[in-house]
Request: fold
Amino acid sequence: MTQPGIESLRKIAVVGRGTAGSLAAACVSNLLSEDDYELHHIYDSRIPVIGVGEGSWPSLVQQLQQLSGLPHEIVQQRLKGTRKYGIEFEGWGRRNRDFTHYFAPQQVSYAYHLSADLMGDLLQESTRAQHIDAKVLNISRADGDAQIEFEGRSPESYDLVFDARGFPREHDPDEHIDISFIPTNRAVIRRCPTIIEKTRGKPVQQHTYTRAVARPHGWVFVIPLTAHTSYGYVYNSSLSGLDEVESDFDALLDADGVTEFEQRAVISFPNFVHRNIYDGAVARIGNAAAFMEPLEATAIGFAQLQIGMVLHMRLNRPTEIHERDVPMVNRFLINNVLCNGLFVGWHYSCGSRYDSEFWRHARDRAWPLYLKVTDPAEVDCAALSKFNSMFELLNQAFVNEADWNRRCGFPLSSYSQMAQGLGSYSRNLGPQPITG
Ligand SMILES: Cc1cc2nc3c(=O)[nH]c(=O)nc-3n(C[C@H](O)[C@H](O)[C@H](O)COP(=O)(O)OP(=O)(O)OC[C@H]3O[C@@H](n4cnc5c(N)ncnc54)[C@H](O)[C@@H]3O)c2cc1C
Reply:
């Protein structure tokens, strides 16, 4: 098959070796044949990767098999992974009832719980690149190309640069859409002993779920790997102090019968999407492009989509229309993040079993901002109307087969499961006539 854009991908750089950068470098190696391109994989070994990111979506299972060329079973073992069939919500919503958000088709489709570091190593093995350990000072577009300035090295020009340097250093309202209707901004991470029974030499086939446990100051994820169990308390640092969060974290571990843990990190994060993810020469990916808290484990999926979209457009579209594609690529990617954000924010709008300051803030002050944040006049995309249309479908007496595959970030089946579980068939606030 002819690839009209191949000439525009002769010299590529990926900056960053976290999950997003490693995925991009492996995708480039997988997509282009060896003689066709030169790839520089650049990272500063003094700047650590985030290293959390242990929940994923089913699309990653397929992609890791394809990129590594290894059978699924081996990939899972290399990742010290388990098969994730969905998310178990404990204490969320209006009904005071626990429920599960399954991937579709239910009990068939699975993702991985995985070790982020090991996924990086696996991807490195399938990457053909020149590795450069250097600090990047600036990445910019110049005369249609991308230019990288280094500390202690001469600048270099590239046809395309993937900027995967992680979270932006500061929030810039001109450049970033602040997803302020999501009420959390910090996480405490603890590593606890594994609860998974292994059979030597075989991948664990047991169905596992990420637990999302509502707590007075936010919620806690519990991710079972074969090497350890990862716990993360996600909260809002302007509403709760670290001491009270740690003390409630201790109480949860006590209740779970966990007697030992290793304190891993306290991570602050923004909920945002960059207005200019791609400028025609530089593509921001991963946490540099967008992030939202990990309730639905969306981050790796965002990176997959950003990388796939940019490479697809550059390779398969004629060079002379690449420039015209730029606004469309941005609109598509921003729309995707905001659709996902609306779905995640809506989870909080129904409160939880706790009537605490955090949950009142989430429901009464944060969530109502969604209308302003996703106003089409502000964000130039249709995320809000798509979100509204999912509720119109949910409230119909009969959903036509043609609509079964509709999605707003997540598929209709996810909206339906969450609506049932949370006790809300509405994106609006106020009492809901849910019974049962
Ligand atoms: C609490 C929490 C839980 C999460 N859970 C999940 C989850 O369950 N599922 C999921 O999909 N995602 C999750 N994530 C997101 C996940 O962490 C990110 O998807 C992942 O870390 C991607 O990060 P990244 O590769 O963009 O950046 P990083 O991991 O921050 O990597 C940045 C890279 O850039 C390099 N770098 C930075 N600056 C420079 C420079 N100036 N010069 C050269 N190199 C540089 C660094 O050396 C590093 O290699 C979670 C995040 C948080 C905060």
Remarks:
- Residues 430-436 have pLDDT under 50 and may be disordered.
- Residues 6-331 form a domain with the FAD/NAD(P)-binding domain fold (CATH 3.50.50.60).
- The pocket of flavin-adenine dinucleotide is lined by residues 15-21, 42-44, 47, 49-50, 52-56, 135-136, 164-166, 187, 232, 267, 269, 286-288, 294, 297, 299-300 (CB under 6 Å).
